[in-house]
Fold this sequence. Notes:
By secondary structure, this protein is an alpha+beta fold. The chain has helices spanning 2-11, 14-17, 30-71, 114-117; strands spanning 77-84, 87-96, 104-105, 108-109, 111-112, 119-120. Strands 1-2 form a two-stranded antiparallel sheet. Strands 3-4 form a two-stranded antiparallel sheet. The chain has a two-stranded antiparallel ribbon with strand order 5-6. It starts with a helix and ends in a 6-residue tail after the last strand. Keywords: Membrane, Transmembrane, Transmembrane helix.
Amino acid sequence: MECVHILIYKKIPASIRKKDRKPVEKSRSILSLILILFIMKTTFFKTIVPFAAVAILGISGAFLTTSMQSGSNLATPKQGYMDGPEGPCSVEVNCDTNPGLICEVNGVQAFGKDNNCSEILYRPSN
């Protein structure tokens, strides 16, 4: 009987008789690939979108506060008045409300008309 077993064994090709055969790779259908892609895409969006939203809000808030701070430094022109031949606060002069050098013309200080010509004004930045 052993003789028959050896003859049958020799008829089997060597490639089949190998002990270390590779396992057959499983092929995936198109439907399963689409399902995997959809699940991965959903997971990606669920994890990334909240962080992206916070980052966008933070960056836009930083730009808004920077522009608000720089907007307050803009010169606000205001008409100043000096004492002239016609009386107090009779000569018009261009001044600013932003603190800096005192608004003067020929050594005479100009004032705003508020509080009976006692509002302190400053020299224009331009």
